Amino acid sequence: MFDSLKNKILELAKSAVMQVEEELNGEEGKNKKIAAIKYVVANLPVPSYLKFILGFVLSVFIDSAVEIAVAYMNHRDDIQDVIEV
Questions:
Q1: What is the pTM of this model?
Q2: Confidence category of residue 85, pLDDT binned at 50, 70, 90
């Protein structure tokens, strides 16, 4: 079960980073990260009464997942720039 939840959190983090980047393009990184974490917690595939608890318990993992997603997106953009040249 945990592996499934872990993979879902990583997927949600990628989606969150893409969505937050589009919506908060001019904002600081800290604000974007907070918004991405909120997105992940809000979309966890668990009953709503467990979202806050799981968000708290898994906060370090969710934070790391968002950081990984940001690094992935930055790396993807760098590769796209090289391809377009």
A1: 0.80
A2: low
Q: Which two tokens mark 27?
A: 């904002």
Rounded CA gap, 41 and 63, in Å? 11
pLDDT per residue as tens digits for the range 3-17: 888 899 999 999 999
* Residue matched to tokens 């990984």: 68
All residues at 6 or more sequence positions from 53 whose CB lies less than 8 Å from its CB, including other chains: none
d(Cα 3, Cα 62) in Å, to the nearest integer? Answer: 14
Q: Which two tokens stand for residue 24?
A: 């908060």
Torsion of Cα atoms, 12 then 36 then 24 then 19, to 10°: 0
The secondary structure of the chain in percent helix, strand, coil, rounded to multiples of 5, reads 85, 0, 15
pLDDT given for residue 10 in this prediction: 93
Domain ranges of the chain: 2-84
